[in-house]
Design a protein that fits this description.
mainly beta
Length: 171
């Protein structure tokens, strides 16, 4: 968890969190954060399998219209992308969460409201010893412009129904 708002300029700069300090092999994962932006087409969180291009464990980005998109690697260099229906690029603070179960499904949550679950299959446990990049892709591209706060990764499914985002995590 970062625990404080970070303002990314969309031109350069991001945060690299050492991989060994994060979840390294889990079957369930919850990723959540607060976001404030008016931009699009950028990487928010990037967890790679290796330094090779396209080798993604999981990645959360924004599409050109400001919808969060989850990409999950399939273990052989490919990946599948799944966009949230809600748009976050409206200049207001929003809580975004997603839950992933290995080989099963994932679900987006927008300001505490769940979207329909989506079936996915992953060929391996989620997580590895590579760094997590916050605000860019692989530390070198796809720079995010906006603010992120209270980024949290959990090795459990934290949400299953509609909820009120924790006030202690709010920006």
């Amino acid at each position: 968890m970062l625990g404080r708002s970070v303002d990314f300029d969309g031109v350069s700069g991001c945060i690299e969190v050492a991989g060994e300090t994060l979840l390294t092999s889990v079957a369930k994962l919850t990723v959540e954060f607060w976001i404030r932006t008016t931009g699009g087409a950028a990487v928010l969180l990037d967890r790679r399998v290796s330094t090779a291009p396209g080798e993604t464990d999981w990645l959360v980005s924004l599409d050109e219209d400001g919808h969060p998109v989850l990409f999950v690697g399939n273990g052989s260099g490919g990946q599948s992308g799944h966009a949230m229906k809600a748009q976050v690029a409206d200049g207001a603070w929003h809580h975004v969460a997603l839950t992933i179960s290995q080989g099963n499904a994932f679900r987006w949550y927008f300001d505490g409201k769940p979207e329909a679950p989506v079936s996915i299959s992953t060929a391996k446990p989620l997580g590895n010893s590579m760094p997590l990049y916050v605000g860019c892709g692989g530390g070198t591209s796809d720079w995010f412009g906006g603010k992120l706060d209270s980024v949290r990764l959990s090795s459990q499914i934290r949400y299953g129904v509609e909820f009120t985002p924790e006030a202690s995590l709010a920006p």
